[in-house]
Structures are given as structure tokens and as C-alpha cells.
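Entry 14. Ran structure prediction on the chain below.
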Amino acid sequence: MIAKLEVDKKAKSVNLKEILAKDPTNADANAELANDQMLKRNYKLANTYYGKSLESDPENEQALFGYGQSAYYNDDLKKAKSSFEKLIQVNPQNSLGWAYLGKLEGDDENYAVATRYIEKALEIDPDYYDYWVDYGRYLYYQGKFADAEKSWTKAISIDSENFYAYIYRASLYDENGRFADALADYKKIIEVKPEYYYAFESIGILAWHEKKYTEARNAFLKAYKYNPDNISYPMMVSATYIAENKETENRKFLTNVLRNRD
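Output, C-alpha cells:
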């Protein structure tokens, strides 16, 4: 743990190997190795290490959660569900266990059940950003749009620099014809996450419908910058030039696009 805090990866590795040489199923050492593999997104190996940790300590909360989460990312949903169920049996106040049970039900489109799980997680930890985002999703898919909006707004109040809640809320506004509200959220998205080119695309479409062709063009150009493989973006840029009768600019732009694609 000292080596970990000092970011001394070599010393940490040596110490863990020494521990496991004497005690191959040491719960803490295996869990730490598993955590390292999770960071590398090697979920299969992480699951193996978490499993070894549980061999010696079957009620280890860190290992139970990690085992379930790595199984979830490996698409082994039965194993994931079993681990999260065991986790909340060991500690009913573990909000992550409830939240992931909600994810599993949500992925299976059992949104009413998912809602009950995430509500339990929120009872335990009411200031967890991701829970409010998920809660909004489950409510939205049940047609409870006003409640979904409140949930995403709550998430934003917790962390205004995270872009996920803005994405969902902007889409909701867009679908319900609240274009000014949607535009405000899309602009916030590109402020905190400019590489999320879908927001530029949405801004461009909204501006196009309002015949604000210069604004639309600038938005589509930004989207094209971040996703140059999408041919629809330069086509929309071209459409804005055509709408403004700017034939020379359009011809020059399309020539550059074709040249760059060659």
C-alpha cells in the first residue's frame, strides 16, 4: 500500500509477488492485482484475480464488487448478477451493488425493476452523479419524461462539468420541441467535452431549421473536424453555402474536401 501511494509500481509488484508466493489466495493481494487489470481493461484476467480473492474471503466487498463488475464488462451477466446480489447481502448499504443490479435490469429493458434498484442506491448515496443519470434513463424509457428531466437536472447540480446528463437532457428537450433549452445544453456539452461531435451536429441541425446558415455551417465544420470520416458533415456544409447562394465558396470547399479525401 505504501508503494501504491508513492506510485512505485515496481516495488508494489515485487511486494505483491512475495505475498502471493506465500499465500496464493491472499484476498487483498489478489484484489489489488485485479484492480490493476481493471485499469488496463483486461476484464477477463481481473475477474480471475477477484475470484482468487473470494476463495479466501468470500465476503470481501471489494472483491465481490470487482468480480461482478468485471463479469459485467465481460458480458457474463449471470455471474455479474450473482456477485452483486451477494454483495448487497453482505452489506445492504453498498450502493454500488444496488446500482449495478439496476444496470443489469436496465440493459434487459426491465426499467421498472431497474428504477427500484437505483432508488435504493440513491437512498444510500443521494449525491452520486452517475446514479441520477441512470435514474433519468430508466424513468425516460418508462415515458416519465418530466421526472427524467428532474433527475438529469439533479445530476447537473451535483457535477456541472460532467457532460452525460447534458446529453440526455438535451435530447429530451429536442424531442419535445424545446429547442432553445436543447441548444443551451448542446453548447454546454461542447464547452466541457468539445470532441463530442454529436453536439455540434445537433447545433447545426437546430440552426439549419432556423435558417441560420452561417451558424449551422460552423457547427457542421466542427463536427467534421472531430469526425472526418462522416461524409454527411461536408454535405451539410455544402448545403448551407447553397442556401446562401454562395456558389464560389461552395465549389472551393468541396474541392478541398475531395482533395483531402484523396
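Residues 247-261 form the longest helix (15 residues). Will compare against last week's run tomorrow.
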